[in-house]
Amino acid sequence: xxxxxxxxxxxxxxxxxxxxxxxxxxxxxxxxxxxxxxxxxxxxxxxxxxxxxxxxxxxxxxxxxxxxxxxxxxxxxxxxxxxxxxxxxxxxxxxxxxxxxxxxxxxxxxxxxxxxxxxxxxxxxxxxxxxxxxxxxxxxxxxxxxxxxxxxxxxxxxxxxxxxxxxxxxxxxxxxxxxxxxxxxxxxxxxxxxxxxxxxxxxxxxxxxxxxxxxxxxxxxxxxxxxxxxxxxxxxxxxxxxxxxxxxxxxxxxxxxxxxxxxxxxxxxxxxxxxxxxxxxxxxxxxxxxxxxxxxxxxxxxxxxxxxxxxxxxxxxxxxxxxxxxxxxxxxxxxxxxxxxxxxxxxxxxxxxxxxxxxxxxxxxxxxxxxxxxxxxxxxxxxxxxxxxxxxxxxxxxxxxxxxxxxxxxxxxxxxxxxxxxxxxxxxxxxxxxxxxxxxxxxxxxxxxxxxxxxxxxxxxxxxxxxxxxxxxxxxxxxxxxxxxxxxxxxxxxxxxxxxxxxxxxxxxxxxxxxxxxxxxxxxxxxxxxxxxxxxxxxxxxxxxxxxxxxxxxxxxxxxxxxxxxxxxxxxxxxxxxxxxxxxxxxxxxxxxxxxxxxxxxxxxxxxxxxxxxxxxxxxxxxxxxxxxxxxxxxxxxxxxxxxxxxxxxxxxxxxxxxxxxxxxxxxxxxxxxxxxxxxxxxxxxxxxxxxxxxxxxxxxxxxx
Amino acid sequence: xxxxxxxxxxxxxxxxxxxxxxxxxxxxxxxxxxxxxxxxxxxxxxxxxxxxxxxxxxxxxxxxxxxxxxxxxxxxxxxxxxxxxxxxxxxxxxxxxxxxxxxxxxxxxxxxxxxxxxxxxxxxxxxxxxxxxxxxxxxxxxxxxxxxxxxxxxxxxxxxxxxxxxxxxxxxxxxxxxxxxxxxxxxxxxxxxxxxxxxxxxxxxxxxxxxxxxxxxxxxxxxxxxxxxxxxxxxxxxxxxxxxxxxxxxxxxxxxxxxxxxxxxxxxxxxxxxxxxxxxxxxxxxxxxxxxxxxxxxxxxxxxxxxxxxxxxxxxxxxxxxxxxxxxxxxxxxxxxxxxxxxxxxxxxxxx
Lengths: 705, 352
Known about the structure:
The complex is a heterodimer of chains A (705) and B (352).
Chain A: H1 2-10, H2 18-34, H3 41-66, H4 74-91, H5 96-120, H6 125-153, H7 159-166, E1 168-169, E2 172-173, H8 174-192, H9 194-204, H10 206-211, H11 216-242, H12 253-264, H13 275-294, H14 299-332, E3 364-366, E4 377-379, E5 385-388, E6 393-397, E7 405-409, E8 413-419, E9 425-430, E10 433-437, E11 443-447, E12 466-471, E13 477-481, H15 491-497, E14 502-508, E15 513-521, E16 524-529, E17 535-540, E18 545-550, E19 559-563, E20 568-575, E21 581-588, H16 591-597, H17 600-609, E22 616-617, E23 623-628, E24 634-640, E25 651-655, E26 658-662, E27 669-673, H18 683-688, H19 691-694, E28 703-704
Antiparallel strand pairs in A: 1-2, 3-27, 4-5, 5-6, 6-7, 8-9, 9-10, 10-11, 11-28, 12-13, 13-14, 14-15, 16-17, 17-18, 18-19, 20-21, 21-23, 23-24, 25-26, 26-27
Chain B: H1 2-9, E1 35-39, E2 43-49, E3 52-57, E4 60-65, E5 68-74, E6 79-84, E7 90-94, E8 99-102, E9 108-111, E10 119-124, E11 130-134, H2 144-149, E12 155-160, E13 167-173, E14 176-181, E15 187-191, E16 196-200, E17 207-211, E18 216-223, E19 229-236, H3 239-245, H4 248-257, E20 278-279, E21 299-304, E22 310-316, E23 325-331, E24 334-339, E25 344-349
Antiparallel strand pairs in B: 1-25, 2-3, 3-4, 4-5, 6-7, 7-8, 8-9, 10-11, 11-12, 12-13, 14-15, 15-16, 16-17, 18-19, 19-21, 21-22, 23-24, 24-25
């Protein structure tokens, strides 16, 4: 259990800055205990004001890091903007807003120079900004020499300017409030806007971004302009606080800012980092530098400490990026105990309805070697067979079922199928969701998400392994999601976990909304609406049982166990012509595998130590179809116990006196005659023969594909 | 270092995974394509004595007359091993009884005083001394899987000199399962659960490993006519079985609660029931079961050179039926092999 929580937490993006965040809290507590009056209003507001100045610069550096580069010239830009604003305000006596605008413009322009070289000339960000760092600094030195005499004498009193430097807004220093606002806007921009996504994409892989159609030159150009402008805002507040110029203004600022954001977890290799993590890192570095200096630690020592932190953060960053998903991978699979009842006896030649026979073995093979993995099949009013295949297609075949043609290309892995009164095919596509294919072959998406469970750490709103479905008389589609923890190709992990991560969802065509109606199922698989439309049967594959969920009547919303302790793992369920139901067993239970379900540690070590092909599995090489009634009585069984022609039967559909068989991994559709069956009965008529049902509402389409 | 650590934490774990079937061990279908010359349930061991090919199956000893099996003798226990001695004498090990020397009509000549149990293979030298391997002291030869899954270490090699009483040469072996005499007078003994062949000095019992980390569990050894030996490998190792051997809790409960037919273990034949455990790679896809998927049962005979270097091998792979080879020798230019899993005597044209 702890490893499950650990792995789920680790997969959360907001867990990335957990280490710097802990460090930040620890530092605040430590200095609070050591420094007298640390938590006084005066001290905190002073700290916040200085923190905000660094914060802006850190944002600028962080942004360039995410874009895959770095801006080392921020310190020099900071100094030049500082000078610009003060000169505009005090010497040329320009209005305040114009001076500020001039400052930001200078910042943006200087950033633009960086961006031009990096984006369009394709120079390396590190060298480019190192060069501009020197040039801008030289420029600053020349200009400040020129203006210093005038600046020291000139002084214009401006109330707003003073307020910006020392005033409060909502009880906080003005610049801290503005930093907060900038941070929030920046966060939204970076994580939710097209520009932000492009910056991240370019940072993660310039080549891939270009292949995706992103003009990275412009993206980088804008990134450095924005970075310059943000750094300029910090410089303006600095100017308003000190109102003077010094030769060391902004010297070494880039290193502090860089250390800050890298400590926060912004990756030096680009494409990874959030505004929140930048601010946490800035907090750590700021508190260390500021408080250690005020505690009397020598400046060179603090500087070397800063370098050490930077080194540590860079090292951790590399290790973290490399090992995080490995840690998740190693701890994600968490088997639990799943105890099944004693194996039912199925030996051949007994009077038991479960007694083994060879009925399925001699099934007529349709579409043999022309179809790959028909997990489920539906048959329309013209007797055409439709099936989903492993290539992500819906294929169809007309009598006499020799040839197969592609009807629709959906993608994903189409599994369960159902047909409505208009002969639209509803299909559960693993990895994609609930889809509909119209009789003309056009495909539309009906649902790809449901409401999120309240008490799970992982966001399970996105549908992952949608499995089977059926349509109720009112047009609502009940469908199963086998597990929300794994993808289709990882189903065996879910089998080894033995957890109840499956659920039944309901798509309402009137509103287009999907809601979860039943959770906590062990691999929710086959779904079938009862003949009277009052309940839905749900197969729980790993638990080897079938549940009945009432959707109408006094017990609506309740679920009860109908079939328990089956000899194998149940898959799809479908209606039979005599008012009973067909149930496919996709795998048989073996004593050794049942035993392993009682030993979660054994399964975990098996997953870790053995390759997938060597794992112990349930017996998928045998075919079995059962028929049961609404009282939970098993009436008969049909077998291909040696799996000669139908290993792993995953579905079956009765149609005009025949039973058609599908298999997830088979190369054919099987057909066996049912001598007792009603020769005119079809599944389609069974669902939609009544005229009022014809008026089932047209599904509301979320998005046309 | 890591091996040391893993030994420390999981002392039962196998240190080396089974090797790939490669080089002289490369898979083929020569054994699967072999002609069946006789079929009898539980056929186990063959030996050539004079012109006759003797076959043991269950309690019965027979000889092959053309395509017909003629009964020589019926015993009160399972015949667990055979060997041809000098002068037309056949030596047989009877489960729960003694080693016996028989003449060509099946009449008993001599009997060892000590009762024998789980004698897995016999070999005679020119003086009439009988060398024998005993798989285990705890179980019968046809319940060898009990010894494997219980990590048996009670196997031994012994000798029954003509006219004297049997004595042991080496004890504490992990299922001694085959013996042959080398030209230098030393014994070659296959140790099944240790997946190796040892060369043992019959006088001192000192052993050296000559063939190790085999891909399967070695069985009987027979001298080949052109020099060298035939090694019957009755099943292949799988990572899963090796893993289960290192899992005491699971293994113990399996032994206690599950029918041995359905244990996670190697078998002489497989696929008859869905109750047998299945490994992921063996799932039938699009009607095909991969021949290279993890085998529960397998057919394999290997020819070794004089210096015990594997030269060539004969296979019946996953999906085939000629599995569980317990005995192999060449006779008249043909390789004869007993597939105990299929209950068949097979004939392969041995390549030059």
